[in-house]
Automatic annotation (TrEMBL):
Family: Belongs to the pirin family.
Highest taxon above the source species: Bacteria
Cofactor(s) listed: Fe cation
Bound cofactor: record note: Binds 1 Fe cation per subunit.
Membrane-spanning segments: none
A GO molecular-function annotation: metal ion binding
Residues that, per the record, bind Fe cation: 78, 80, 122, 124
Name used for this protein in its record: Pirin family protein
Pfam families reported for this sequence: Pirin, Pirin_C
Record-annotated Pirin N-terminal domain positions: 41-141
Domain Pirin C-terminal, residue spans: 203-291
Keywords: Iron, Metal-binding
């Protein structure tokens, strides 16, 4: 997925921040961002007060939308550096094509994981005969220094590990939950898991106390760590918790994020994750000149042009959003 903001910057937003029941829990409201002509997403990370959760540096929640009689998602070819994209659907279908030659449809319950390394281009488009609904998540994972200059790759996993416990089902998308491990290859310790309640229930979900952790709700409502959570916000849980209480009054779909704190300062601009202003300028120039990122075959849409660089120098920021250097 592409960041289509007209003026992509350091992702500092003027959003109200509500401190909730426990001292380390912070409710971070998202904001709507148009994604092309046909899709609007709720951007939950990065946020003015919390830039990352582990290496998770970007979280977009889209839908549920009725796309019957509409094109659905139509994101033309665009570049990425320094990150992994994680695509998770609960409704709909999207076809991923990239400059490695991948051409892969994804449907609910499957995982698309793309690793940009030094550079890759891809498109994401609903097929003409797509289902009537569209609902899912697109997330970015920042690559650490030792992985971000490597070769690009793409993985599709048609089946993910699932834990069923009465009215609750947990699907392990990335990392480990209990004794289950996702087959997805990541480069820092991470957790990404969908938690689905099919009816009323309460559970204590285990957490790694070394990780930063957070929860979002995709549909329904639930009390998480004593806070009522509904779609549109991310509840940051901080570090040091070995479990979190979740209580659903009815059907609810949550997504649990976690990871070891990512201590490398980042420059995030448009679809690039780097370490300096100069890196971002070079990536933009390479995309504009048709270098480095390759061509997305099988996609008839024109590649997305890069926006103009801002009039100020881009500065690296740490995981708290503080300027470094």
């Amino acid at each position: 997925m592409s960041d289509l903001d007209r003026e992509p910057g350091q992702a500092v937003y003027d959003c109200a921040v509500a401190t909730v029941a426990e001292p380390e829990s912070v409710l971070l409201p998202g904001h709507d961002v148009p994604l092309g002509r046909y899709t609007t997403v709720r951007r939950l990370l990065p946020h003015r007060r919390r830039r990352m959760v582990g290496a998770w540096c970007f979280v977009d929640h889209f839908g549920p939308d009725d796309v019957s009689g509409r094109p659905g998602m139509q994101v033309p070819p665009h570049p990425h550096t320094g990150l992994q994209t994680v695509t998770w659907l609960v409704e709909g279908e999207i076809v991923h094509r990239d400059s490695l030659g991948s051409d892969q449809a994804i449907v609910p319950g499957q995982l698309n994981l793309m690793t940009s390394g030094h550079g890759i281009a891809h498109s994401e488009q609903s097929p003409a005969d797509h289902p009537p609904g569209m609902h899912g998540l697109q997330l970015w994972v920042a690559l650490p220094e030792e992985a971000r200059h490597g070769e690009a790759r793409f993985e599709h996993h048609a089946a993910m590990p699932v834990l069923r416990d009465g009215e609750m089902t947990v699907t392990v998308v990335v990392g480990e939950f209990g004794r289950l491990r996702s087959p997805a290859r990541v480069h820092t310790p991470l957790l990404g898991a969908e938690v689905l309640f099919t009816g009323p229930g309460r559970r204590e979900l285990p957490l790694d106390p070394v990780f930063e952790n957070a929860v979002l709700i995709m549909s329904g409502t639930a009390d998480v760590a004593g806070t009522r959570l509904s779609p549109g916000s991310l509840l940051y849980l901080g570090r040091g918790r070995s479990e979190v209480s979740v209580e659903a009054e009815g059907e609810a779909r949550l997504f649990l994020l976690g990871g070891e704190p990512f201590d490398e300062p980042l420059v995030m601009w448009w679809n690039f994750v780097g370490r300096s202003h100069e890196e971002i300028v070079q990536a933009r120039d390479d995309w504009a000149a048709g270098r480095r990122f390759g061509t997305v075959a099988g996609c008839s849409a024109e590649p997305l042009p890069a926006p103009g660089m801002p009039n100020v120098r881009l500065k690296a920021r740490d995981r708290h959003g503080r300027t470094v250097g």
